[in-house]
Amino acid sequence: MPYIATPDNIPGIRGLMNVRPDAALALDALVQALLVNESPLTRGERELIASFVSHRNDCTFCKTSHGAIAAHLPGVNQQLVQDVWRDHTAAPISDKLRSLLDIAAKVQQSGRAVTEGDIAAARALGASDLEIHDTVLIAATFCMFNRYVDGLGATTPDTQEFYDLIGRQRAAEGYLTTSVLMKPAP
Amino acid sequence: MPHIGLRPDLFGITSLLAYRPETAAALCQLTQVLLRGPSSMTEAERELIATYVSQRNDCAFCAAAHGSAVCHLPGGDAAQVEAVRRDTGSAPLSDKMHALLRLAGKVQQGGRAVSADDAAHARAAGASDVEIHDTVLIAALFCLYNRYVDGLAARTPDDPAYYEALGQRITTRGYSMPPNGYQPLHVNGSH
């Protein structure tokens, strides 16, 4: 049960966003720009960063949703998502992505935790300025979303079927379409 | 030195927003809605929450910028900014603001640190559901901004005149993206 009343009792972040539709529009636009629109990182890589940071923040709803979205995208499957959660240093991913996850892990702790050495390591493995920028901003953005979801006690379903529904929809459509969780307009 | 190539004539968050306008557009829209949009909380109250969270995240740029904004807004002053920095509990604020700042402080630690009791405490002090929602989302948004600014080591001026000018700009012009791009601030002094 969320700590505030949410319209229609829709679970997860969508119920909270319906409390403030003007903020919801901006949140959808942000996640679309970061995770779907043009970037040198693939959509799968970006969703993995989002899911990884959410895992570190212990946010089950975001971690499982973005894990499911990643698993529905090319180059990622559910096993890889779980490998990244368990130990990204041992997961079968590129060295560049591993170094970007190292940066994301620092951002999850604090902006001040990121060092010149973290950046240099990613750059030495081929990461560009834009890839470093997008990694930091995705990690920071999920430090926001995770706090929003758990800070208001959003309802967090515990069946993989629920998250697969979200994963399939968002992998196919991005973030600007009406959620499958919403009742169709009468 | 920033970690990535940013415009040398801009500082802090402004240099990052100018670097990636595609993501900046949505960030600016969100910030404008939360800090300047219709709300039963005053702009000074919302800026004080932003300042408090930024102080706790040790983000000098955001804490100084939004602290300056508080001082430029009706109902806000430097004594409030200083009081929440030193000892939030004794700051000269309403019971409702004390409860909302306590909630924001929990959000700063982590979403899981917030309990139903924190929300109930704010409600008992007179906060509405939308005020509780907005407080949590503003606090979470500054956990984003603080990490964005310091995570990329955006340049943080030392000169108080810079923040005075920035506080003036964000209280008069708001947070919407300027149609012709970001321009350097005109600051009396060294910048």
> Whole-Å distance between the termini of chain A?
26 Å
Largest sheet, strands/sense/barrel of chain A: none
Number of E-state strands of chain A: 0
Q: What general form of chain A does the structure show?
A: globular
Radius of gyration of chain A, in angstroms, nearest whole number: 16 Å
Written as H for each helix and E for each strand, in order along the chain, the element string of chain B is HHHHHHHHH
**Amount of helix of chain A:** 55-70%
- Which secondary-structure class do the elements of chain A indicate? mainly alpha
Topology order of chain A in helix (H) and strand (E) letters: HHHHHHHHH
Count of DSSP helices of chain B? Answer: 9
The overall average pLDDT of chain B, rounded, is 95
User: Which structural category fits the helices and strands of chain B?
Assistant: mainly alpha
Tell me the radius of gyration of chain B: 16 Å
Q: Which two chains touch over the largest interface?
A: A-B, 51 and 50 residues
Strand content of chain A: under 5%
Tally of extended strands of chain B?
A: 0
N→C terminal distance of chain B:
16 Å
Main sheet attributes: strand count, strand direction, barrel closure of chain B: none
Query: Helicity level of chain B, as a percent range?
Result: 55-70%
Q: Helical stretch count of chain A?
A: 9
